[in-house]
Every structure is written in C-alpha cells, then in structure tokens.
Amino acid sequence: MTAWYRKVDHVTFLTWLALIAASLAAIYSTTHGPAAKFLAESVQQNFRSQLVWAIICTVGVGIALMLPVRAYQRAAYPAYAFCIGLLLLTLAIGKEVGGATAWLVIGGMTFQASELAKVGTVMAVAKLLSSQPANDDRRGSGNVRYAAGAVALLVLPAVLIVMQNDTGTALVFLGLIPIMLFWSGLPLATCALMISPGVAGYFAIRGTTVGWWLWVAIGFAALFTAGIWWVTRKRYMTILAALFTGGVILVSTVAVNEVLAAHQTARIKSFTNPDAPEYRKGVGFHLVQSKAAIGSGGLWGKGYMEGTQTQGAYIPEQSTDFIFSVIGEEMGFVGSVVVLVLFGVLIIRLVQLGARVKHPFGSMVAAGAAGIYLIHVFVNVGMATGLLPVIGIPLPFVSYGGSAMLANTAMLAIVLVLHMRRDDFSIYGY
After folding, report:
1. How buried is residue 353: exposed, middle or buried, by Cβ count under 10 Å (0-12/13-18/19+)?
2. Integer Rg of the chain from CA
3. Helices (H), ranges, 131-210
4. What is the pLDDT of residues 59-103, one digit of tens each?
C-alpha cells in the first residue's frame, strides 16, 4: 500500500508546515531577541514549548492518517460528550488566566478545554447533518429538525464557554452556525439573515462614540432588508430581516450606554476610539501599540528581531493574541500578506477538499475546519489592526499555545485522512 505521505494532499500539508515555521520564527523573535530581558522566565520558554508541540503535532498527523477512517465518524458523538464534560469540569475546577476560567490543570499539564471542544463539536455537527436521508427533499435547507439539532450542538458549548468568561471563543462556535448550515444546503439568504445582526451590531457599537457610524448601521439595515426582499420575494423573510437588524441596532446602542458594566463599556469604547486620553494608557493600550507596530513596519519591515515595539515588549500578549503585530512590524506589509495568503490557500483548499469528498460527513468536517480557521484569522487580524474589539482570539497555528495548535492540527488531520480515502465507500457502510 502506498505510504500516507504519497497520498496526502500536499498543498494543505505544506501550507500547514509553512504556518508552523512562521509561528516558530515569530515566537523566537519575541522571546529570544532584545525583548527577552523584559519577559518573565516562564514566557522565555514559549519558543521551546511551541517547538515541542509542533513536533508532537507533526508526529500526530502521521499517526492520524494511518488510522481507520470509520473511527472518526463513530467517535463524533462520544468526542462531543467528552468535550462537554471537560467544559463542565472547567467551570468547576478551572484555573483563571487573564480573567477567564478556561484552563484545566491535570497532571501538571495546563490545557484549554474550549479548544478541544471545537474539534468534537465540528465532528458531531458533521455527523448529524450528514445523517439526513439522501433522498430527503428537505435535506439541509428545509429539515428543521436537523438544522435545529445542529444549532443546539453549537450553542451548548458556546454557553458553557461564556460562563467561563471567554466570550471570544464562544463567538467562534456561534459563527459556525451559518457556515455549516449553508454547506449542508441552507439557502444563502437565510445564512445572510443569520449574519446580519452581527454586522448591524458592529456598526451600531461604533456609532456609540462616532455618531455617523450609527447612520451606517441604519443604512445597512435598510439595504439588507431590501436585498432579502429582492432575493426571496417572501414577506416573512423581509420582516425578519428588518426586525433582526433594527432590533440589534437598538439593543446594541442601549446596552453599551445603559446596561453593560463600566469596564465592559470601556473596552468597547476603547475599540472605537483607542486614542482617547481616558483609554490610551488603559484598556486601549493593546490597540494603540499593535497599530503602531504594524504601521511602523512599512513595506518590508524593520528586520527580523529588530522591531521597536516588539523588542521593547510594548505589545501585550505579543506571542499569542497579537502575534500578527510582530509579523507586521518586523516583516512589514509583504510578510503580513505572505501569512494571509498562506491562510487563504489553506482555507480555500479545505473547501475544495470538502467538495471532493463523496460522503457528507467528510465534506461537513472540511467545511467546519475551514470555517473555524476563517473566523479565527478574520477576528485576530481585525483585533491587531483595530478593526475589531480585543476578544482574545489566537491566530491558528501561529499564535503560541499547545492546546490551540493541537486542536487545529487535529481538525486538519481529520480532513486530510477523509480526503485521502475519499473513494473508499466501504468505510461509510456502503
């Protein structure tokens, strides 16, 4: 039998290796350059830890590709139940880090259960949506029972993670709802309807400090509602669009000004206006330093391990949430684009692999993995550039963190093995 490395999709595998290399280079710069003298000894070990995890994940990919494919589909629901159990355990005995009780310490090892939950949840949703009868005319789009079940599977871990005070990670699960339902057959207009409140809320929140953004939100709501009518010609869809977008604009505006706690309001308003004196040295410090680093990088960057903001350790969490700022400062616009192109290649390739897999389970897993990577990249880069609030979302494969690297690599490995044996119908019981 041909060895797995001859049959695996080389574009995906090599792109993954390139992102791992970028991670190690960036983390080494932040922990072994001039910045090292400003860092705690534990932080200086980040590069060594990331290198160990990279080796473990590389070996793990090879092992995963040799396992029977049937095992992944059978393990979907048990894996989901196990992950929910870990999230509940985290609520009970979790360790608080950075204000979020999202870490478990078992046997001296610290890991984030919510990262592993992404893998189990994608597999469970994929199994549920792929279990619809092939001859069901309501498949994906009209079968409310399957769609509602998928939403429930995604919302449950999101709620548990919000209870851990980790709202950013919870949003990743919610963002998967329109992506996976669309891939299963949900009409584009319905998926757009799901996304519209988030877009309207974003504009409305910006409007709490910069008035003209509120008019942008209202304009978006009007255009979106008109677009839904033009596409669907259905009155109830149009009414829902108007209610969703209009309601979110109203709730967002009132919540920021009247409902949220002072520190929550400060975080939101610092995102919309980080240069304001009351935020610049407080909650807006992350954004100010990150934008300064990226902006000063220019076209080609200041040079490896030569970044002023990076090596002065001015950027908080520069090995994790703000690692894109390090790349932008030291490698410039060109280096940033290269990293984004790598992510683009990876995500598009996963979509292509999902389209090639002949069984819906494998196709849905590929769509879920691509969706998670897309959400993470979009939010992380948006945070670093000041376009989105700071909510603690790492850059897949690049940010420091063993839990995240292991979970992201596991999803990628599952997609690779399902695609590698896509023509073997017997593994699905045919």
Report:
1. buried
2. 22
3. 144-163, 167-183, 188-206
4. 988 888 887 778 888 999 999 999 999 999 999 888 887 677 788
Two tokens, residue 111: 């890991």
**H-helix or E-strand containing 37?**
none
- Measured in whole angstroms, how far is the alpha carbon of residue 15 from the centre of its chain? 18
What is the amino acid identity at position 6? R
The pair of structure tokens assigned to 340 is 């984004």
pLDDT tens digits for range 315-340: 878 888 899 999 999 999 999 999 99
Residue that is written with structure tokens 């469970």 in the block: 124
Query: What are the residues facing 290 on neighbouring strands?
Result: none
Residues 6+ apart with CB under 8 A from 187: 141
Return the pLDDT at 33.
72
How many beta carbons lie within 10 A of that of residue 422, not counting itself? 17
Is residue 50 within 8 Å of 23, Cβ to Cβ?
Answer: yes
Under a CB-based contact definition with an 8 Å cutoff, are residues 129 and 180 in contact? yes
Interior CA angle at 47 toward 45 and 52, to 5°?
100
